[in-house]
C-alpha cells in the first residue's frame, strides 16, 4: 500500500481559551493600575493642554567670538533640560531652532511658574566675594549714617554651635537661602577704600557706600551702586551687562523677608563649571533643609583657597555671593577653610533649597541667552486641537469598520472586537506611561494613533484573506484556519517589523513633537502583534467551531459559493491490468 502524500504542515489548534484569558487578565491589570495610580487620562502636551513656549536667543559673552556653535548649543539644551526637569517638569521640551535659538515648551498644569523662572535664568554661574551690601533703594547720601539704611529684612544668620549657617570642621559653608551674604578675600581686586564695619544685628546691610576712589573705574562703579534701585525690574535687568568675570560688579538679590538688597561684588573666583553636584537634603541634626555642594578637582582647590581668605575677613566681607544672571541667589558666610564639599544652611524651605541646588547643578551654561519671545497657548485652543484630532480618529475608525462590515460581514465582528481590545490597551498604557516615563500625548502622537488603526486593520485583513484562500481550495473552516495561520503570521510579523523599525529610526533621529508620533506608532505596532497573536487568532479558532461560521452562512463572510470555492478533487485509483486500453472480444 502506497504511503500517503505529505501535504503542507497544519498548525495545531492549541488552547485558544488560555490566550483569551491571558489578554483579559492583562487588560484588567492595566485598567486597575490606571485607577489605582489616580491617573485616568493621558498627560497632554502643550499643543493640547496649553502652556508656555519660550524662545531663547544665544549671545556671545564679552570678548568671545564664534562661541555660538552646535556643540555649545547642544550643551545648553542639555543643561536647560536638566534644570527644568530638576523641578519635576519632565514634560517640558527643550530643543534648538536655527543656529542661535532654543525653544522651551512648558505644558500647563506642571510647575510652570517655577520652571519659567529657571529657564529665564540663563547666564553663567559665578561665585563672587561680597564687598558691600545695602538696602535695595537708591542711596541718597554716600556719607549718610548706616543707621538710615538698616536692614529691612532678617539679619544674616551667624555661625552657631547648633549648625545654623555654620561652617563646621567637616567642610560646610554657611549661608541662607536669600542673597544676604557678605564676603571678600584679599587680593580679589577689592576697592582699597575702607569698608564699614557691620553690627551684630545686621546693620551691615545698611552699610554706607564706599568713599569715592581715585580709580575712575571704581568711582564709576560706586556711582552706579549709589544710584541702583533694585526694586525697579528694568534696572535689575541691566545689572551686570557686559561685565567680565575678572571685573568687579554690582548685583541685586532678595533677603529672607523678600526685600531687595544691592551688592558690590569682587571678581569671580569660581564658576558653575567648578561645581560637580548639588542636592537639597534635610540635615539630620537640625531637621532643616540644606544644600550640599560637591566641587570638581580643580574647583575644590579654588574653593579651598577662596574660603581660606574669606574666613579671615569680618562681616560682610567673609561671605561669597552665588550670582546667576546678575542676581544673587544666595550668599553664605565662611568662618573656616573648606575643601571639596560644602553645606549651605539657613531658613530654607523645600522649594527654595531645591531651587538653589538646581541652579548650582545646572547653572553653568556655555552661552548667555535672552528671552526673545514668550508665547502662551491657552487650554481652549489646545482643547480645540484635541477635539479635531479625536474627530479625525473617529472618522478613520468608522471608515475602517464600514469597510470590514461590507466586505467581511460576520468576520467583521472579530475585527471590531480586536480593534476595541487594541484601543483599550493603547489608552491604558498611554495613561500609565505618563507618570512612569513622562510620556505626553501631543497632536503628532494622536496622528500616530490614527495611523495605527490602519496597521491593525491590515493584520486582520491578511489573516482573513489567508483563511478565505483555504476555503476556496475546498477545505472546511476549522482546518482552513489552522493552515492559514502560519502564512498569515509570517506576513504580519514582517509588516509590523518594518513599521516598528521605521518608528524606531524616526524616534532616534528626530526631536520634540515628532518623537511623539514615532513613539505612539512604535507602541501601537507592538500592541498589534500582541492583539493578533493572543486575541484575534484564538477568537477566530473558537468562532470556527460555531455553526454560523463553520457551515458557511451567507452572512458569515465565509460562504463557499460566494467565495467561488470548488469541490475538493477526488483521486481515483487506476487499474493495474496488463493493458490500459479496451479488451477486444475477439481476443478474449
What do you see in this structure?
The protein is an alpha+beta fold and 588 residues long. 43% of the residues lie in helices and 15% in strands. The protein contains 15 helices and 13 strands. The chain has helices at 16-36, 46-49, 70-85, 112-120, 216-227, 233-238, 297-310, 350-362, 379-408, 411-437, 443-472, 477-509, 513-543, 547-550, 560-563, and strands at 51-59, 93-97, 101-107, 125-135, 249-254, 260-265, 270-271, 275-282, 289-295, 320-324, 327-330, 341-348, 368-377. The strands form three sheets. Strands 4, 5, 6, 7, 10 and 11 form a six-stranded antiparallel β-sheet that branches. Strands 2-3-1-13 form a four-stranded antiparallel β-sheet. Strand 10 (320-324) and strand 11 (327-330) form a beta hairpin. Helix 1 packs antiparallel against helix 13 (513-543), helix 3 (70-85) packs antiparallel against helix 8 (350-362) and helix 9 (379-408) packs parallel to helix 11. The longest helix has 33 residues, at 477-509. The radius of gyration is 37 Å and the shape is elongated. The model is unreliable at 1-12, 142-214 and 569-580 (pLDDT under 50).
Q: Termini distance?
A: 30 Å
> For this entry, what is the oligomeric state of its chains?
single chain
The biggest beta sheet reads: 6 strands, antiparallel
Structural class of the secondary structure composition? alpha+beta
Tell me, rounded to a whole number, the average pLDDT: 75
Low-confidence region ranges: 1-12, 142-214, 569-580
Let me know the number of strands. 13
User: What is the approximate shape?
Assistant: elongated
Portion of residues within helices: 40-55%
Strand content: 5-15%
Encode the helix/strand succession as letters: HHEHEEHEHHEEEEEHEEEHEHHHHHHH
Count of DSSP helices?
15
**Gyration radius from CA atoms, angstroms:** 37 Å
Amino acid at each position: 500500500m502506497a504511503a500517503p502524500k505529505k501535504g503542507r504542515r497544519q498548525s495545531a489548534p492549541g488552547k485558544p481559551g488560555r490566550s483569551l484569558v491571558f489578554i483579559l487578565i492583562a487588560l484588567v491589570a492595566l485598567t486597575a493600575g490606571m485607577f489605582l495610580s489616580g491617573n485616568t487620562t493621558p498627560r497632554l502636551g502643550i499643543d493640547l493642554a496649553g502652556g508656555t513656549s519660550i524662545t531663547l536667543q544665544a549671545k556671545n559673552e564679552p570678548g568671545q567670538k564664534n562661541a555660538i556653535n552646535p556643540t555649545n548649543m547642544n550643551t545648553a539644551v542639555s543643561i536647560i533640560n536638566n534644570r527644568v526637569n530638576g523641578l519635576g517638569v519632565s514634560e517640558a521640551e527643550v530643543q534648538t531652532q536655527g543656529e542661535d535659538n532654543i525653544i522651551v515648551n512648558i505644558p500647563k498644569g506642571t510647575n510652570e511658574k517655577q520652571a519659567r523662572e529657571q529657564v529665564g535664568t540663563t547666564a553663567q554661574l559665578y561665585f563672587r566675594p561680597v564687598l558691600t551690601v545695602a538696602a535695595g533703594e537708591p542711596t541718597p547720601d554716600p556719607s549718610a549714617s548706616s543707621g538710615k539704611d538698616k536692614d529691612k529684612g532678617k539679619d544674616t544668620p551667624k555661625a552657631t554651635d547648633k549648625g545654623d549657617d555654620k561652617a563646621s570642621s567637616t567642610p560646610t559653608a554657611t549661608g541662607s537661602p536669600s542673597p544676604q551674604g557678605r564676603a571678600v578675600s584679599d587680593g580679589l581686586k577689592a576697592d582699597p577704600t575702607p569698608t564699614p564695619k557691620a553690627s551684630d544685628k545686621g546693620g551691615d546691610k545698611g552699610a554706607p557706600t564706599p568713599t569715592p576712589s581715585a580709580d575712575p573705574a571704581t568711582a564709576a562703579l560706586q556711582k552706579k551702586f549709589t544710584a541702583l534701585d533694585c526694586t525697579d525690574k528694568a534696572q535689575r535687568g541691566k545689572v551686570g551687562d557686559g561685565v567680565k568675570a575678572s571685573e568687579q560688579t554690582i548685583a541685586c538679590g532678595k533677603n529672607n523677608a523678600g526685600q531687595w538688597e544691592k551688592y558690590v561684588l569682587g571678581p569671580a573666583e569660581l564658576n558653575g563649571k567648578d561645581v560637580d553636584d548639588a542636592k537639597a537634603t534635610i540635615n539630620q541634626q537640625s531637621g532643616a533643609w540644606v544644600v550640599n555642594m560637591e566641587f570638581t578637582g580643580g574647583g575644590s582647590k579654588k574653593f579651598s583657597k577662596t574660603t581660606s581668605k574669606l574666613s579671615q575677613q569680618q562681616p560682610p566681607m567673609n561671605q561669597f555671593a552665588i550670582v546667576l544672571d546678575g542676581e544673587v541667589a544666595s550668599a553664605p558666610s565662611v568662618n573656616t577653610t573648606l575643601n571639596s564639599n560644602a553645606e549651605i544652611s539657613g531658613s530654607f524651605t523645600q522649594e527654595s533649597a531645591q531651587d538653589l541646588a538646581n541652579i548650582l547643578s545646572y547653572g553653568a551654561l556655555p552661552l548667555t541667552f535672552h528671552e526673545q519671545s514668550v508665547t502662551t497657548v491657552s487650554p481652549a485652543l489646545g482643547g480645540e486641537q484635541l477635539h479635531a484630532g479625536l474627530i479625525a480618529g473617529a472618522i478613520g475608525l468608522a471608515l475602517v469598520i464600514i469597510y470590514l462590515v461590507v466586505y467581511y460581514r460576520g468576520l467583521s465582528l472579530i475585527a471590531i472586537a480586536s480593534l476595541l481590545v487594541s484601543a483599550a490597551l493603547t489608552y491604558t498604557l498611554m495613561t500609565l506611561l505618563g507618570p512612569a516615563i513622562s510620556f505626553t500625548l501631543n497632536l503628532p502622537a494622536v496622528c500616530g494613533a490614527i495611523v495605527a488603526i490602519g496597521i491593525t486593520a491590515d493584520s486582520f485583513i491578511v489573516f482573513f484573506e489567508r483563511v478565505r484562500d483555504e476555503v476556496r481550495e475546498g477545505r472546511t473552516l476549522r482546518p482552513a484556519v489552522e493552515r492559514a495561520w502560519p502564512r498569515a503570521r509570517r506576513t504580519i510579523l514582517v509588516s509590523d517589523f518594518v513599521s516598528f523599525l521605521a518608528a524606531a529610526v524616526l524616534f532616534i533621529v528626530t526631536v520634540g513633537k515628532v518623537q511623539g508620533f514615532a513613539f505612539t506608532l512604535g507602541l501601537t505596532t507592538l500592541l498589534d502583534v500582541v492583539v493578533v497573536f493572543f486575541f484575534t487568532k484564538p477568537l477566530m479558532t473558537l468562532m470556527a467551531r460555531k455553526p454560523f461560521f463553520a457551515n458557511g452562512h451567507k452572512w458569515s463572510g465565509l460562504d463557499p459559493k460566494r467565495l467561488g470555492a470548488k469541490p475538493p478533487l477526488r483521486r481515483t485509483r487506476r487499474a493495474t491490468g496488463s493493458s490500459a486500453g479496451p479488451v477486444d472480444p475477439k481476443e478474449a
